Amino acid sequence: MRITEVSQSPGNITYWVLPGPRVLEEETFGTPDDPEMLFRPKLKAAQQAGGPPAVPDTLKSLPFLVGIPEKARTVSDDGTWVFDKPTAFSNNARIINGQFETTMRDVVREDTPGKPGNTPDTASFEAQFNDPAGNEYRVVLDHVVKPPFPGYETQGGVFTEDFLHGNTGTGTPLMPKQYTYAAWWGLGELYINGEKVDDHRVMHLMTTEVVRNRDYNLVFSDDLPLGADERHIRNQEHHTHLMMPPVRGVPGKGPVFDPVPTAFELPNGKKQPFLHIMFEQDELSSREPTRS
To answer: What pTM was estimated for this model as a whole?
Structure first.
């Protein structure tokens, strides 16, 4: 077993990520003439897997969790290949106040058979932060799960010392392939301005190598690892991502598409349907427990 503790104290740099497009990197998505990381095979795998019944419909609503449909890929006038929908993986972010603590206990290195919540891996987590309009949020993890998406390999729901995202097959391919010190997937509660607004929210936390550059742009797999002068904070070698997608865990169905009920209004008059919070000055420690 490995125990990993990560935290960030109040007063350190935290970002709220806003919706925006994402350029499709060749390493993961191929080229317009030879596309890779397609969505249709992933959907077919989900339909044949016999997992929670909600999974195929959820992937139809949120295909970027596993791949990108060809019809959702656009080549711009300058030749850039983009997924031009408003994703949670944009270069547009705002500085906010935030803090968190998490402890992860990685017991197994492979996903165990059974339901998503059937795992010996455990984690605790609580975060507080505000949105750009000043609304106050608290997120609390209830328990770890193994996401039942095709191709995901999550080491039992707590994941340590390996690569996620990009072309790994685990995590959205819209993020670059990045070395991950520790991560978890789980279900938990969301509080806004002191009131509980939802539970059973799907959430994902990972502490990784830095994947945003000095301009706070999300880089690509072949840009990594970033050198000290390329990072957003020169002497910070890792940062922590908290992602709450528009998905809720429903007993008997599994992960169901359901926008996160945030309080933050976007320029189009709609509420932001996801949370993507970046803690840029985290502290990390990892150890094996002492045997008595």
So the answer is: 0.96
